[in-house]
Write a structure and sequence with these properties.
The protein is mainly α and about 240 residues long. It contains six helices and five strands; from the N terminus they run E-H-H-H-E-E-E-E-H-H-H. The protein has helices at about 40-45, 55-70, 75-100, 135-155, 160-185, 190-200, and strands at about 25, 100-105, 110-115, 125, 130. Helix 2 (about 55-70) crosses helix 3 (about 75-100), helix 3 (about 75-100) packs antiparallel against helix 4 (about 135-155) and helix 3 (about 75-100) runs parallel beside helix 5 (about 160-185). The longest helix has 27 residues, at about 75-100. The termini are far apart. The model is unreliable at about 1-5 (pLDDT under 50).
Length: about 240
């Protein structure tokens, strides 16, 4: 059994390791050279139009996802790339809020991002600054989801409804994982805390209509069923893949 008490954020965020790699956030500078910050990624507008698409981290990530998953349309790769990054940000912030009763300041200027990397090695927090757990909405939704959605809509004309649906789904996915872990450790209080935080976060107008309140199934589709060999996700609004 792993017993955890609320403690101050430590420089390595070591408590997150107990939750598994998807919740882990590396701290310090990346060991293999500099990476772009998420602030740069969100702000790199019009890069492709100027012939510099390779320097745009978001376009690079979407292209990597499109290639690796053989996505038939750019919107499918955009959605999957978006959901992956959003899920990581929710997992880190929610995990810290539950285990530390604090969240790290995830300012986009402090987060280095490897658009070709995979969890947990794609994100590096260069400085750990503790914020109250109640700041999680400002840290994730306002600090990342809003500018990330704006960047994707500007580059790819992506549906705003789809992006916020991804965000609501990713939040509940992280909550379910935390709750399962807490039950396995005999710490149901931590699972209850995760669920309570999720309820508060989902009350924001950006997220409040993304999930069915009775079933917690999303009201939009992430388009994963369009990937060759893909199907519907566990919280999909569809019971079976739609016919094309």
């Amino acid at each position: 059994m792993v017993l955890l008490l609320f403690v101050a954020l430590d420089p390595d965020l070591t408590a997150l390791r107990a939750l598994g790699g998807f919740f882990v956030l590396h701290t310090g500078e990346p060991p293999h050279g500099p990476l772009p910050t998420l602030a740069r990624a969100y702000a790199a507008r019009h890069a492709e139009r100027n012939g510099e698409a390779r320097a745009d981290p978001i376009i690079l990530r979407v292209r990597k996802v499109a290639t690796s998953m053989r996505a038939p349309e750019s919107r499918v790769a955009v959605s999957i790339a978006h959901q992956g990054l959003v899920a990581r940000l929710w997992a880190v912030a929610l995990g810290c809020a539950v285990l530390y009763d604090r969240v790290p300041d995830l300012d986009p200027g402090l987060l280095r991002w490897d658009p070709e990397g995979a969890a947990p090695d794609e994100l590096w927090l260069t400085e750990v600054r503790a914020l109250p757990a109640g700041a999680i909405d400002d840290v994730v939704r306002e600090g990342h989801l809003v500018p990330l959605a704006a960047a994707l809509r500007e580059r790819f004309r992506t549906s705003e409804r789809l992006l916020w649906g991804n965000a609501g789904s990713a939040l509940m996915g992280a909550t379910r994982q935390l709750d399962r872990w807490a039950r396995a450790q005999g710490r149901t209080d931590l699972g209850e805390r995760a669920r309570a935080l999720a309820v508060e976060l989902l009350a924001h107008p950006d997220l409040s209509g993304t999930l069915d309140p009775a079933t917690l199934r999303r009201r939009s589709c992430c388009l994963y069923y369009r990937v060759p060999g893909g199907g519907v996700c566990g919280d999909c609004c569809f019971d079976r893949p739609p016919r094309h």
